[in-house]
Prior knowledge:
It is a single chain. This protein is of the alpha+beta class. The protein is extended. The chain is about 65% helix and about 5% strand. It folds into six domains: about 375 residues, no CATH class; about 160 residues, no CATH class; about 80 residues; about 70 residues, SH3 type barrels; about 80 residues, Alpha-Beta Plaits, CATH 3.30.70.100; about 30 residues, no CATH class.
Amino acid sequence: MSVVSATMRPAFAGCWRNLCVPGGAFRALPVILLVLALLSSGAAMAQQSGSTAGQPQSEAPVAAPVEGAPADGAAADAAAADGAIVDTPVPGTAVPGLLPVLEPSPSQAADTPDYARWEATATRAEEAIQAGRASTVALEELRAQIADWRAQFQSAQDANAARIRTLRQQIDVLGPEPKEGETEAPEIARRRAELNSQLSTAQAPGIRAEEAYRQADGIIREIDRLVRERQADALLELGSSPLNPRHWGPALEAITQSVMTIQSEVASAWGRPAQQREANDNLPRILIFFAIGALLILRSRRWVETLITRLQARPRLGTSVAIFALSLGQVGLPILGIYLLTRIVYALGIVGLRGDAVLSVLPIAALAILGATWIGRMTLSSDLSSRLVDLTPERAWQGRWSATLLGWTYAVWIVLATLAASENYSEPTRAVLNFGVLVVGGLLLFRLGQILANRTRPEPAEEEPSYRDRLLTLLGRGVIAISILAPLLAAVGFGMFSAALLFPTILTLGLLALMGLLQKLVVDIYAVLVRGEDRARDALIPVLIGFALSLAALPVAALIWGARVSDLTELWARFSEGFQIGETRISPTDFVTFVVVFVLGYLATRLVQGTIRNSVLPKTKIDVGGRNAIVAGLGYVGIFLAAVVAITMAGIDLSSLAIVAGALSVGIGFGLQNIVSNFVSGIILLIERPVSEGDWIEVGGTMGYVRAISVRSTRIETFDRTDVIVPNADLISGTVTNYTLGNLIGRVIVPVGVAYGTDTRKVEKVLQEIVQAHPMVLANPRPGVLFQGFGADSMDFEIRAILRDVNFLLPTKSELNHAIAKRFAEEGIEIPFAQRDVWLRNPEVLQPGGGGAPAGAPPAEEEQASKPEEGTARPEGEMSSDVADEIARPSALTAAPDTPDPAGEKSQ
C-alpha cells in the first residue's frame, strides 16, 4: 500500500464517522476544510514518493536510530553510528527509504527529563543531519521526536520556580551585598551564603533544561533547513520533456502494464478456492452493502435535489440554511456509497498491492469530483439570489462545468500519482503521464479565470467597480497567468514546479469559494436567530465570525501551498513563546488572561453601577447630577482597577515600560494636550458639577439640555432635537449659562401693550390678577406688573414673575397671553396696532373718471420738476405716482366676484 493510502485511509474513515452520526451534516463543515488540506498534502506525498522511487539506490537513506531497543542497545547504537538502515517494514510499501521505529515519547516519562537518553538522541540526530543521507520521511520522523523532547525541556524550565522566587525574596530582605572593603554581620553573611547556595541548587534544573531546549531547537532548525532545501531542489529540478516522442511509447507501455498487473492480481486472488468460499459465505452481506452503495451513488443526488426543489417552492425564513444542509448530502451520500463498495472489495480480498494502492485513494478522488461539483453549483447557482458571483446565466453554467471538470482532473492526477509511486515509474514516464493532466487542468483553469476576470457586471458601465469586483478581477487575471505558465513549465521539463503551481491554485479557488459559502451560511443562520435578513446583513457578529473562519482557513491554505504540518506547529510554538518587551515576555496565554480578567472586571463594574444607580441612590437625597457623577466616578475607578488587576494577573511588569511612558508623556506634551485637557475638564465637571446631565445651559451660542458628560466631551440636545458635541475644556474655560443649576426656579417676562386712553390702573390690576392666578407662578416673591412707558403706538406694560420650573417657561408665557387676550376682551381694553398716515400727492386720480389731468393742472414740465430726484429720500408717508396709478385702477382694488384668482388657486 502506498504512502498515500496509509496516510489517507484513517483520515477518510474518521471523516465518515463524523458524517454518519445524527447531525453529521453540520459536523461535516470542519471536515471539508480538513479534507481540502489532506487532498493537497496526500497528493504531494504521493508525488514526493514517486520522485523518491525514481532515485538511484547507491545512496542509502539513513533513518533515525531506534530508541525503543532492548536494554543493552549496543548493537543498535553501533549500527546507527555506522549509518546503517533501521528497517521498519510497512505492508504494501514500495518506497525505498524506510521509516524509523519511533521511540516512546519523552512526554510520557517522568517530569524530570532523562538527559542521558537525550544526549544519545541528539548525537545521533546531529550525525544523521551531517551525513545528509537520510530520507525526507525519516527526517520528519526524527524531527517529531526532537520536538517532543523540546516541549518537555520547555516545561522543565519552570522547575522550582516558586522556590526560586522565595529564595530571592529572602536574599532581598538581607539587603545589598557589602561593597569591597565593607563588612557585614557574620550571621547575615553566613545566611546570605546559605541562601545563595540554595538558590544555585534550585536554579540548576531550569538552567540545564534551558540549555537542552536550545540544543533541541537548533537541531529542529537544521532539519527544517535541510527539508526545505530538498523541496526547493525537487521543484527546480529540470527533468525530461514530455514533448519528446521517445518517452511516449514507454509511458503508454507502463500504464498498460500497471492495468494488466492489477487485473492479474484480481484474477489470481479470485481463483483461489479459499477466497471463493469466503465470498460465498459473506454473499448476503456483500449483496446488501453493494445494493446500498449503488443506490447511494446513483440515486442519492436526485433525492437531495428533489428535497431542495420542494423547499425552494415554499421559501421562508431559514430555508437557505436547510438547503445548505441538504446540499451536503450531494457530496456525502455518494462518497459513502463509494466507501461501502471499497469495503466490499477489501472484504473479498481480491486486490493485491497495486490494486490496494489505487483503491485506497478512490474515495479521495471521488471527494475531489463531488466536492468541486458541489462548490460550483452552490457558488454559481442557477438561482440568481443564491449566486455568490454576479454572472450571466450562460457564464454561470460555464463556470459550474469548469469546476466539475477541474475536480475530475484533480482526481485523475491523484490516481496517477499514487500509481506512479506504487509502480516506481521512471521520471520520463511520470512526466508524460502528468503532462496531459496538467494541460487539461490549465485549459479549464484558463476558462475559469476568464469568467472571473471578464464577467458581465450588473451595474452600469459608467459606475466605478466595487472593491469586491476589483478583487475578483485581479484573482481571475492571476488564475489566467498560472494556467498559462504551468503547462509551459511542464513542457520544458519542470513537472514538479508545474504541479506545485496548478493544483494548489485549484484547491485555493475551492477554499475561497467554500469560505464564501460558509460566510453566507453564517449570515443566514444569524437571520434566523434575529428574525430578519436585513438586520443580519448589516450586523457585526456575522462579519466577526467570518473573520474568524478566514483565520482558521489560513493554515489550510498554507498546507495547500506546500507547508508541512511541522511548519505550522513550529510557528505556533514560536507564537506561544510570545515576544519580549524590555525584561517582560508577553505570550498569548498572558494576553488571554489579561482580556478575560479585564472583561470580568468591566462586567462587575457595570453590575455595581447598575445596582447603585437603580437601588441605592434613589433612596438618598442626592440630586440627579450628583447621582450621575457618583455612577460615572465608580465606572472610571472600576475600569482602572480592572486594568491594574488584569495587568498584574498577566504578569506584565510595568516598570519595564518606562521608556514607552516617557515617549507617551512627550506625545501628550505636544500632540495630545487638547485630549488631556478635555479629559481633565471632564473629571472637573464630574467633581465640581457646574453642569450636570439634564441641565438647561447655554454655551457658545448653543442652548439646550445636557444629555451626557463623557471623558472627552459633553453632548447637548438643542430644542430642535439636534445634538451638539462640546469639548469639556470649553465648558470649563468658557462662559456657561446654566438655567437650572441648584434649582429649577426661573423668571418669565411677558410684554403687553394697550391703546392710548386706557385706564392704566385698571390694566395693572387686571394683569396682576391674571399672573397671580397661574399655578406655575410662585407667590413669593410676589409677581409684579410694571408700566414701562409710552411707546410709538401703545402704552407698554410688563409682567415679571418667578416660575416654579423654568423648563415650563414657554408654555407658561403662552398661557398668560391667552388669559390676557380673553380678559382684555371682557374688560373692553383695546390692544392697539401700528397706525400710519398715507399722504397722496395727487388724490384726484382716485376719483371716478379722473383719468386725465384736472383743470388748472401744472404743465408736464412742472410736474416732472415736482417729482423728487431719483435716489433721493421721499418724505414719510408719501406715495409715488406709479403706486397711486396702480391704486387708482379699479381692477387693482377689487376683483370680479365670478372671476377666479389664478394665483390663489396656484398657491392652494
